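It is worth pausing here to work through a concrete case rather than discussing structure prediction in the abstract. The textbook approach is simple: state the sequence, then state the predicted structure, then interpret. We follow exactly that order.
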Amino acid sequence: MKLILASASPRRKELLAKTGLPFDIIPAKGEETITKTVPAEVVMELSQQKAQEIAEQQTEDCIIIGADTIVAKGDVIMGKPKDGADAYRMLDSISDDCHQVYTGVTIIRTGAQPERITFAEKTDVYLYPISEADIRAYIESGDPMDKAGAYGIQGDFAVHVKGIEGDYYNVVGLPIGRVYQELKKMMYI
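Step two, the predicted structure:
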């Protein structure tokens, strides 16, 4: 049975590769529609849309993984920054504080025994104070522009991370341990 990752994210591709399972990448391209406001519900809704879009295109039995990650401080959701000013606003707001990273995952098995599971993982991330100069230098690097919350924990931003509670890989973009366990339950592995 073919395994498909419905994402163009290089980080998700790298994490799914850690399973040793062969998979194809078919990024979802549909417009994201958000009807929820609670962060965990938002990422589950978006992951379902991505996985369902790719599932509907398949003509053979397969398993599709859709995922979406957001950063939130309380109920304020931070997606990918629109520009440098937006990135600055996000980074300044989470400096010297705790925020949450949510990743929603939907796994759909198509075929004679269809199955679907959707879940959200939450990780608390604690940051040291970040100076204005450090924020500006990080924005100048270009790294924050394609990342929820305007940072990537696995890159140069790591020097600002005081600690986490929860799954590190969830912050990177895919809670791979939980994904692997769910694939096992679906008897893919």
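Step three, interpretation. DSSP finds six helices and seven strands in the chain. The two ends are 10 Å apart (CA to CA).
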